[in-house]
Amino acid sequence: LGPLILELAGQIIERTGLVRATEGILDRLVRAPEQEAHLGQLTQGWIAYVDRHSSTRHVAMYNRVGQRARAHLTGCGKAALSWLPFDKVVAHVEKCCTEGAVHLPDLEELEEVLKVGRQNGYVVSQSIQKDRMSVAAAILDSSGRPLGGISLAGPASMFTPAVLAAARVSVTDAAGLVSSRIINGAPP
Fold it and tell me: At what angle do helices 86-100 and 107-120 cross, to 10 degrees?
């Protein structure tokens, strides 16, 4: 238990800093009814949801604070993974798929999605929950290492081209601000 407890303690400390760096940001992202903003931390191939803000009209979504999901299936996870060399992405994906005894995704397709995500600075994802879409951007530390991501999610039907464009700008700006806070150690 000794090394495991140390690892868990380190993750808790990292999450605390990540959540603190987003104070006052996630709630500003949620603009439309049925939208949610999520903060996910990348942890060994998984995204652990560490914060969530909903609009006034809550819509049923599978993710909740404390839940973890395979990073390669989530918007927050894809955004974070897009900043890693692809051999490291494969290691993350293999680890979480082996742990859950599930099949590996199409790695060529995943590589292309992550490549486009990194070029654009954001990812649009519809692979974790039926009829739901998210727009996500990575949160990076001072060395450019991805810590996790921020996403704005909701029913796919609400993401018209105008809503998608606004979400992209909001999410990338928010992730940039959080990254800056983490890099500079600035309080929120």
Answer: 130
Q: Classify 158 as helix, strand or coil.
A: helix
Give the Cβ contact number of residue 155 at 10 Å.
15
Length of the chain in terms of residues written: 188
Percent of the chain with pLDDT over 90: 38
Round to whole Å and give the CA distance between 140 and 80.
8
| pLDDT tens-digit series, residues 133-158 | 899 999 999 889 999 999 998 888 88
Q: Are 174 and 182 in contact (CB under 8 A)?
A: no
End-to-end CA distance of the chain: 35
Q: Determine how many CB atoms are found less than 10 A away from the CB of residue 158.
A: 16
Which residue in the block uniquely carries the two structure tokens 């992202």?
A: 29
Average pLDDT score, the chain:
82
**Closest Cα to residue 78, out of 25, 35, 120?**
120
CA distance 164 to 66: 27
pLDDT band at 105 (very low <50, low <70, confident <90, very high): confident
